[in-house]
Amino acid sequence: MPKHSALGFGPISIISANHTVDQSSGMPQVYVKNVKYKKYGHYYRIIGHGVKSGMYRGGQEDTMYYKKGHALKEQPTSQYKQHHHSFKWITKSQTLYKK
Q1: CA 84 – CA 72 distance, rounded (Å)
Q2: Exposed, middle or buried, 90 (CB in 10 Å: 0-12/13-18/19+)?
Q3: Which residues make Cβ contacts (< 8 Å) with residue 5, sequence separation at least 6?
Q4: 93 contacts: CB under 8 Å, gap ≥ 6
Q5: Which of 49, 74, 76, 90 is most buried, by CB atoms within 10 Å?
């Protein structure tokens, strides 16, 4: 994005051993604590409790991640199952990259 773009900044995800943080420009921060991880090959399932923040109500969070090289794709587990256990529908612009 251009330096002073009205679009703001892209999505940011921070994943650590005991919590995750997801944030996009103009949206509330989603902080998930007490996470549990399960690994399925290149896929990771992270389950935890979201903390209420602004418009985000909080509650149970269940997210699937797909890692290939430095690229990371994420989606709720319900969408992962709905799309026949696939990440193929996620476009390149929705992919997160490791810095």
Answers
A1: 19
A2: middle
A3: none
A4: none
A5: 74
Query: What's the CA gap between 70 and 28, in Å, rounded?
Result: 26
Cα angle for residues 44, 48, 49 (degrees, 5° grid)? 155
**pLDDT tens sequence across 44-80:** 889 999 999 888 899 999 988 888 788 777 787 777 7
**Percent of the chain clearing pLDDT 70 (strictly above):** 76
- The neighbouring-strand residues paired with 21 are 14, 31
Instruction: Quote the CA–CA distance of 98 and 33 in Å, as a whole number.
Output: 21
- Give the chain's largest Cα–Cα span: 40
**Residues 71-80: tens digit of each pLDDT:** 777 787 777 7
Please provide residue 57's backbone torsions phi and psi, each rounded to the nearest 5 degrees. -80, -20
The encoded tokens of residue 86 equal 């696939």
CA pair distance 81, 50, nearest whole angstrom: 21
